[in-house]
Target: LON peptidase substrate-binding domain-containing protein
Amino acid sequence: MKKQTELPDTIAVFPLAGALLLPRSRLPLHIFEPRYLQMIADALKTDGKLIGMIQPNLVPGREGPGLHSIGCAGRITQFSETEDGRYMITLSGVSRFRILREVEGFCPYRRCDVKWDGFERDLGGEEQDTNFSRKPLMELLGRYFETRGLSADWSTLKEAEDELLINSLSMMLDFDAEDKQALLEAPSLQTRRETLVTLIEYAMRGGHDEGLMQ
Model:
């Protein structure tokens, strides 16, 4: 397990709206743009093989998308190349970070100076949610999936550990970038679960916020 002092001060960042990575979770990615192919190739040459996933932040008057201040770094733990030169990778979440500044200079992809302070818990073991009652969440998910016409492997969901269940749902459900950012920035597994429930309830009401479950 890495310590914060072993994490780099500068990392490549991949702005991808709606793509959420959380510590101790895995995110598969299909890479095909030339600049991000170069980013992956460069990351594979480093000891940490780290890439920072981050949500774009549209700023009025700015040319090109800005970046949210907090993202999550992942290590490339699986890599394959297709015959036509695309990459299929899996990132394993390591720790969240806060952007200090974007690095200027010639590079096809974006790089940022970052700090890891405040996210020490990310480098520890699996987080617990002592107030979590699984039955209400599973019932809510059942209604949500039914209204969306979605299917699920319910046996896997029921057997998953609390952190894996909550983080996997946070990553896979179709929320917008700002909602994904709220899930990322949740200070604990309990607050992430509470945010997740609120977002599901909100979506089921068609965006009307009356009577949300807290």
Notes: The radius of gyration is 18 Å.
